[in-house]
Amino acid sequence: MADNTPLKSLPAWQALEAHYEKVSKLHLRGLFAADPARGEKLALEAAGIYFDYSKHRVTEETIGLLADLAESAGLREKIEDMFTGEKINVTEGRAVLHTALRAPKNATIVVDGENVVPHVHAVLEKMAGFAEKVRGEHWKGYTGKPIRNIVNIGIGGSDLGPVMAYEALKSYSHRGLTFRFVSNVDGTDFAEAVTDLDPAETLFIVASKTFTTQETMTNAETARDWALKALKDKAAIAKHFVAVSTNAARVSEFGIDTENMFGFWDWVGGRYSMFSAIGLSTMIAIGPKHFQEMLDGAHEMDEHYRTAPFERNLPALMGLLGIWYNNFFNAQAIAVLPYEQYLKRFPAYLQQMTMESNGKRVTTDGRDVDYQTSQIYWGEPGTNGQHSFYQLIHQGTKLIPCDFIAFAKTRHKLGRHHDLLMANVFAQAEALAFGKTAAELKAEGVKDWLIPHKTFEGNRPSTTMLLDELTPAALGRLVALYEHSVFTQGMIWQIGPFDQWGVELGKVLAGRIAPELEAAAEPELNHDSSTNALIRRYRQHRH
Ligand code: G6Q
């Protein structure tokens, strides 16, 4: 297959290059005028998501050509390889099986000769038992008080998913429990998270796949000191600390009983781990039943991705549309704009999932790419963004395709709020696509000199995703949608979405600098002159 054929040599790629020359000149105003049914034709519904892509700068031919690209890039086979546990994380020699985390009990997925599904369900059951104990006040702290506060300590993939899911599903959460998330090595994060908490009522979940991550271990040690200062007895650790990890030896070295450890496996990547035991805080918040609904939602999207033809396959289409703008229109970014306050951390979560996965510059076989890879993902919930950076999206010089995410039902029926929210999301997509012409402004009597300022050229693409309601299942579907969109892109760009070597160098250098900052005597510094000067200045000024 196309593995070793450079991407730009694929006939399907070249067909898209030629097609781009025609389509890039078209305006969405013209495309909609030419086909009154376009708004319904270029929309799909699957796994509970209505996906309107009609406001994209595409024709039906574009979609066909993009689907051809996916076929000729071998996407079909690659999806099967992922789902069946092939070791597609090449540089780490690992399978990539976040889909197994949401597979039903009777599924069979074999890694190294063993069916992993029973292991997944065993951990889910152990998590459920623990979550119910905490929720039902049966898990008591060392002094006999029930646990009221849960503090998740983790970073990156061991933090962003849990925070995002907790915030997203807050309306389903146990309101008698307080949840906090500590990630940053900046002591402020820990200090502020625990400032109003009683150690006797606080449970720390130390979430770290490796149990070696500097930030997490530093925060966990500080948490242990904080708890012991109040509880005074090492035996208290067993009641106030649990771990989520793949590294049992390190967990017990830290002092946590491995009975209170929830495991996962090397085939779960950090940024793909929110459905694993890393989701323990989520499960305690929303309960095992809702957690299972979230898994079922993700599984529904998995099945859709695995089986639907690419033209009608939401994750494939989303990924391919991203490629269309990134590689043909030279667009650099994608804005993710949820019109749902509960999804306020969703853009941050997606930043890691998308950019840590596909921010790569060599192919899996080590060649430099000669095309762009991951877009920059960013965003904020609507309508706040409208009063801030949307100006640039409407009238700036950059092309920024937008993902609008909205829900027909609100979790809080309050007067006109939801209708107004929805009016805004529909209006933004409409304004971006169709803009406002000079002729329209003139007809409205706008003075000539103001017309250039008030003109919106339009033709700015967006997807509108409309879901029924932000339920646990809906969240599962949305997350899986983006996961598979990222996979689609990574496979077409011939890069490896599941490693992250780019985070290593900074870690190594920080490890070298930390002792230089901590040394009592003036250390000999052998960095560049800028780094040396910064270190010296910090040492002089820190007290
Ligand atoms: C994610 C990355 C990274 C990781 C953190 C935390 O895909 O690998 O963000 O999740 O570095 O790692 P630990 O869970 O091992 O502490």
Gross geometry? globular
Ligands bound to this protein structure: glucose-6-phosphate
Report the structural category.
Answer: alpha/beta
Report the strand count: 13
Rg, rounded, reads 25 Å
Low-confidence stretches: none
Number of helices: 21
Helix content: 40-55%
Structural features:
alpha/beta; single chain; 21 helices; binds glucose-6-phosphate; 5-stranded parallel sheet; 543 residues; 6-stranded mixed sheet; 46% helix
Commentary on this structure:
This protein has 543 residues and is α/β, with parallel strands linked by helices. 46% of the residues lie in helices and 10% in strands. The protein has 21 helices and 13 strands. The protein has helices spanning 11-23, 28-34, 38-41, 60-72, 75-83, 117-135, 160-168, 187-194, 214-231, 237-240, 248-254, 280-307, 314-328, 346-358, 390-395, 417-434, 438-443, 451-454, 472-492, 504-518, 529-541, and strands at 43-46, 49-52, 110-111, 114-115, 149-153, 178-182, 202-207, 241-245, 261-263, 333-338, 376-378, 402-407, 462-467. Helix 7 (160-168) runs antiparallel to helix 14 (346-358), helix 12 (280-307) packs across helix 19 and helix 13 (314-328) packs across helix 19. The protein is globular and about 75 Å long. The N and C termini lie far apart (62 Å). Glucose-6-phosphate binds next to loops. The site of glucose-6-phosphate has 14 residues, from loops.
